[in-house]
Design goal:
With 299 residues, the protein is of the alpha/beta class. The protein has a single domain (23-297), classed as Alpha-Beta Barrel (TIM Barrel), CATH 3.20.20.20. Helices cover 42% and strands 14% of the residues. The chain has ten helices and ten strands. The protein has helices at 45-57, 79-96, 109-117, 135-141, 170-188, 207-215, 218-221, 235-247, 256-273, 283-297, and strands at 10-13, 16-19, 24-30, 62-66, 102-105, 122-125, 145-149, 195-198, 228-229, 277-280. The strands form two sheets. An eight-stranded parallel β-sheet has the order 8-7-6-5-4-3-10-9. Helix 2 runs parallel beside helix 3, helix 4 packs across helix 5 and helix 9 (256-273) packs parallel to helix 10. The relative contact order is 0.15.
Length: 299
C-alpha cells in the first residue's frame, strides 16, 4: 500500500483550529429510534448526553450528533422533528463540554442552522450538500467546519445498492464526484480550510467498492483536503468477518463488539493511507489502536 499524507495540518471549524497532527476520533451519538446498529439506544436526551460523556471519557476528540437515520429503507423525516431530536442534545453537550468540538449530521440547512446556533462547530452533510439547495449558502455564511460525504440518491436510497454502479475504477470515479462537490462549495463561498472529505464507505457502494476505496485512499488524500472515514460497523466489515470465520470452520455469530474490532482493522489501514479523522461507535478501542499505529508510523 502506498502511504499518503496531506498538506493540510489544521481544520478550521468556527473558532476552533483542529490540528491534524495525530488521529482525530469522532464519536457517534445517534439520537434516532431506527439507526442500523444502535437505533433507540440514545433516543432520549439524557441517554444521549450520558453516551456523549462516555465517548469523551474514552478518548473522543469530538462528537457527531445525528437525528435522522440513513440505514437501508430509512424514511426522511421533517426538519422540525429532526431539530427536536438533535438541538437539545447539542445544547446539553456544549454546556457540559465547552471545549469539545460538536458536529451535527444532517442534510437539511434548517437543522444545520439550528444546531450551529445551539453550539455545534461542524456540519457533517452525508449528501455533500446535494439534497438541500439552501445548504451551500448557509455553510458559506457560517464559519463552521464542513464534512462532505460522497453518496448518491436521497436519504432513503443512499445506503442501498440502487446507485451502486461504477466503472472499472470506482475509487477514481468517486474521487471525481467528491472533488466536484468540494469545488461547488468553494465556489459558493466556503473556504477550503473548512472542508473535510469523506469517501462515504458503505453509502451507494457494494462491499467491493468500500474495500477498493480503503485500499486506494491515497487517491482521495491527493485531492488536498483532510480525509475522514466512517467504516464503523459497515456491511463490508461484517461480510469479511463472516467469510473468514466460515472459511476457518468457526461458528458465524457476530456481535457489535466483533464488528467494532473489525472496524479497527479498517481504520488502521485508512490511517496508513492518509486518513486523519475517524467517525466511529467504539471510541475506546480506536483511541488505543490508532495511537499505537500512529506512533509506529512516525517512527
Amino acid at each position: 500500500m502506498k502511504r499518503a499524507t496531506t498538506d493540510v495540518a489544521v481544520w478550521t471549524a468556527g473558532s476552533r483550529a483542529i490540528r491534524l497532527d495525530r488521529p482525530i476520533i469522532i464519536g457517534i451519538v445517534n439520537v434516532t429510534p431506527d439507526s442500523f446498529s444502535d437505533g433507540g439506544n440514545f433516543f432520549r436526551s439524557d441517554d444521549a448526553l450520558k453516551h456523549a460523556a462516555k465517548l469523551i471519557e474514552d478518548g473522543a476528540d469530538a462528537v457527531d450528533v445525528g437525528g435522522e437515520s440513513t440505514r437501508p429503507g430509512a424514511t426522511a423525516i421533517p426538519a422540525t422533528e429532526e431539530m427536536s431530536r438533535v438541538a437539545p442534545v447539542i445544547e446539553h453537550i456544549r454546556a457540559r463540554f465547552p471545549d469539545v468540538p460538536i458536529s451535527v449530521d444532517t442534510t437539511k440547512a434548517d437543522v444545520a442552522r439550528r444546531a450551529l446556533e445551539g453550539g455545534a462547530d461542524i456540519v457533517n452533510d452525508v449528501s455533500a450538500a446535494r439534497l438541500d439547495a439552501s445548504m451551500p449558502a448557509l455553510l458559506a455564511s457560517s464559519e463552521c467546519g464542513v464534512v462532505l460525504m460522497h453518496s448518491r440518491g436521497g436519504v432513503d436510497e443512499m445506503a442501498t445498492y440502487r446507485y451502486a454502479e461504477y466503472d472499472s475504477d470506482p475509487s477514481a470515479e468517486i474521487a471525481i464526484e467528491l472533488a466536484q462537490r468540494a469545488r461547488a462549495l468553494e465556489a459558493a463561498g466556503v473556504e477550503r480550510a473548512r472542508i473535510v472529505l469523506d469517501p462515504g464507505i458503505g453509502f451507494s457502494k457494494r462491499s467491493e467498492h468500500s474495500i477498493a476505496m480503503l485500499r486506494d485512499l491515497s487517491e482521495f488524500s491527493a485531492l488536498g483536503y483532510p480525509i475522514l472515514v466512517g467504516p464503523s460497523r459497515k456491511r463490508f466489515v461484517r461480510e469479511i468477518l463472516e467469510t473468514t470465520l466460515a472459511r476457518t470452520g468457526h461458528a458465524v455469530s457476530l456481535t457489535n463488539a466483533d464488528r467494532d474490532l473489525g472496524t479497527v482493522g479498517a481504520s488502521v489501514v485508512a490511517l496508513v493511507a492518509g486518513a486523519r479523522l475517524f467517525r466511529v461507535h467504539d471510541v475506546r478501542s480506536h483511541r488505543r489502536a490508532l495511537d499505537v499505529a500512529w506512533a509506529v508510523l512516525r517512527g
